[in-house]
Design a protein that fits this description.
Elements (H helix, E strand, L loop, with lengths): L2 E7 L1 H16 L16 E7 L4 H7 L10 E10 L3 E6 L3 H16 L16 E5 L7 H10 L3 E12 L4 E5 L1
Antiparallel strand pairs: 1-2, 1-6, 3-4, 3-6, 4-5, 6-7
Length: about 170
C-alpha cells in the first residue's frame, strides 16, 4: 500500500496527461490510468509513505495552503529503477519552498514519510507508469517527449490511498 499527499493539476494539463496515458495504453504500455480500477488522476506527490493518517496530516498542515495555485512546468521524461516512467517537473524556488514547508509541518507533527520524498532528495515528477515493460521503455519515453513541454497549475490537493479508497481533500 502507498499513501501520498497529492497535488492535482488544472483541467488542460490533466486532459493532456490522460491523453498520453490513453496513447501509451493503446501501445500496450500500462499506465496510471489502468492501475487500481482507474482511481488515479494526474498528480504530483509531495510526500508518500506506507500509510498517512488523513486527519493527522490535515492537522499538521492546518493554516498552510497546500493546494495554492502553484505554476509547474514539465520539461523532460525520466525513469526510476523498477520500470517507473515519469514527466519531470523543473524545480523552481516556489515549488521547493512549498515542498519544504509541507515537510517541516509533517516532521513537527511526527509524521514519517519515505526518504525519497524528503527535501533535498525529492525529484519533482508526475508518474506516467509504474511498470513499463523493459523492451518498450524507449518507445514510452519517446511518446512522453512528443507532448512536452507541458505547463500546469496546481488546483487541488488530497491525501490519497487508492488501494483503500481514501481521498481526503486538503485546502
Amino acid at each position: 500500500m502507498v499513501a501520498a499527499l497529492e497535488l492535482y493539476l488544472d483541467v488542460d494539463a490533466t486532459r493532456r496527461i490522460r491523453t498520453l496515458w490513453r496513447a501509451l495504453e493503446a501501445d500496450g504500455i500500462p499506465t496510471m490510468a489502468s492501475l487500481l480500477q482507474e482511481k488515479h488522476r494526474p498528480h504530483v506527490s509531495m510526500a508518500a509513505a506506507r500509510r498517512l493518517d488523513p486527519v493527522a496530516v490535515s492537522e499538521a498542515l492546518a493554516g498552510h495552503s497546500v493546494a495554492r495555485p502553484l505554476p509547474l512546468r514539465m520539461d523532460f521524461a525520466g525513469q526510476f529503477v523498477g520500470r517507473v516512467l515519469w514527466l519531470g517537473i523543473t524545480p523552481t524556488v516556489d515549488l521547493l519552498a512549498h515542498h519544504q514547508a509541507i515537510h517541516d509541518r509533517l516532521a513537527a507533527a511526527g509524521i514519517e514519510v519515505w526518504d525519497a520524498y524528503r527535501p533535498a532528495r525529492w525529484i519533482p515528477h508526475c508518474t506516467i507508469s509504474l511498470r513499463v515493460p523493459n523492451p518498450r521503455m524507449s518507445q514510452a519515453v519517446r511518446r512522453c517527449l512528443e507532448m512536452l513541454p507541458l505547463t500546469a497549475t496546481v488546483t487541488g490537493a488530497a491525501i490519497a490511498d487508492h488501494a483503500n479508497d481514501i481521498s481526503h481533500p486538503l485546502p
